[in-house]
Write a structure and sequence with these properties.
Layout (H helix, E strand, L loop, with lengths): L45 H18 L6 H13 L3 E4 L6 H12 L3 E5 L7 H4 E6 L4 E6 L6 E5 L6 H4 L3 H6 L1 E4 L2 E4 L5 E6 L12 H4 L4 E4 L5 H12 L18 H12 L5 H16 L3 E3 L3 H17 L7 H12 L4 E2 L1 H5 L4 H11 L5
Parallel strand pairs: 1-8, 1-9, 2-5, 5-8
Antiparallel strand pairs: 3-4, 6-7, 10-11
Helix pairs in contact: 1-2, 1-3, 1-9, 2-11, 9-11, 10-11, 11-12, 12-14
Length: 363
């Protein structure tokens, strides 16, 4: 495999600033005579380069089962390397669950799926103390949160009390039950799916919960050509419940995740780029259309995703363009617009798009 950057590819003439869902293709670009066969910074260690190539292979494996949604795949990879969690939003039937199942298979990690419903209780997620008649004592029975990838399916269909059961696990990678703390395995990542808020029977996630998600990714309906491809695959016998028959193989491992995470933490960020991140975040707090701007946690999240994005492109430093590429998916879900702005059709996304054109970019 050659070392090629995760090159942003605009779709339908839209800018890569729109969302992480337009960040990159599902396969590596083929090097030409004009393109050097190795563009990776020599600063990256051999282990980091091996990990980076493993994530190229990961995207290729996912593409065997999921048609399109290249940006969502890239966004999940970024969140995984950065040690964060991802919120997927889209109408039913756009392969949200299939995407996560395929990712878990290609990573060779454990996965649990919880269908969030109005009657789901916190103990159904975290686990509970159960009486053991053999020992005449209570023992802890772990819940589905004790896994590597937790798919919280339709998280906004359960009340806030149950939604909040994930907060400690997401923030501290541990669960406290009856005065005892139980650590979670490495890696641990929550990938939650959500129906659009205008659907009936949903409970919008509170700001504190949204802020725990490193990125929010929108899965759109497929294009006409992609939908034809989906039907052709099913006509040929593709079964989403039997991924092994689709040729999905384990091509990455927790060791690759750890190596990539270590490498991303060493990516250099100049004082000018750090200042640009802060100026962008602070501008969200003073925008007249915004009720709640991005918190300092959001600024650190932008730092993490920008570093990973630079690492995936083979660079040992972050550029202002990296910050711009990751701003929408990292910051938009942490903002709330005023009611009057919402009535005028102004969203957090449009506010951020405007700020990205007005906040001074370092030279």
């Amino acid at each position: 495999m050659t070392d090629q950057p995760f090159t942003p590819t605009p779709q339908d003439n839209s800018s890569v600033l729109n969302t992480a869902s337009s960040l990159s293709p599902a396969t590596e670009p083929v090097p030409t005579q004009e393109t050097p066969t190795s563009s990776v910074s020599p600063v990256l260690t051999p282990q980091a380069r091996e990990a980076r190539e493993a994530f190229f292979r990961l995207r290729t494996q996912i593409a065997k089962a999921v048609v399109g949604q290249e940006g969502a795949v890239t966004g999940l990879v970024i969140a995984l390397i950065a040690g964060g969690h991802a919120l997927l939003e889209g109408v039913p039937g756009v392969a949200k669950t299939l995407l996560v199942r395929t990712m878990a298979t290609a990573l060779n990690v454990n996965m649990s799926r919880v269908q969030f419903t109005p009657d789901l209780m916190p103990a159904d997620i975290t686990g509970s103390m159960v009486w053991d008649s053999g020992t005449s004592s209570f023992t802890f029975r772990p819940g589905p949160v004790f896994t590597n990838l937790l798919l919280a399916d339709e998280i906004n269909r359960t009340p806030p009390k149950t939604q909040s059961a994930l907060l400690e696990a997401m923030e501290e990678h541990q669960v406290s039950i009856d005065g005892h703390t139980h650590p979670l395995d490495f890696p641990f990542m929550v990938i939650a799916t959500q129906n659009p808020v205008e659907y009936e029977g949903t409970y919008p996630l509170p700001e504190a919960q949204l802020d725990r998600f490193l990125v929010k990714l929108d899965l759109s309906l497929p294009s006409r050509e992609e939908e034809i491809h989906v039907l052709a695959r099913h006509q040929e016998g593709f079964d989403p419940l039997e991924l092994a028959k689709a040729g999905i193989e384990a091509v990455a491992s927790p060791e690759h995740i750890f190596a990539a995470r270590q490498a991303a933490s060493r990516i250099e960020v100049s004082p000018a780029v750090l200042t640009y991140m802060v100026d962008l975040v602070r501008a969200t707090r003073t925008s007249p259309s915004v009720r709640l701007g991005v918190s300092p946690r959001g600024a650190t999240a932008l730092l993490r995703t920008s570093r990973v994005w630079a690492f995936l492109q083979g660079r040992a430093y972050v550029t202002p363009d990296d910050v711009k590429d990751m701003a929408i998916s990292t910051l938009a879900h942490r903002m709330s617009v005023r009611a009057e702005a919402d009535l005028e059709g102004i969203s957090a996304r449009t506010v951020l798009e405007g700020l990205l054109t007005t906040v001074a970019v370092p030279r």
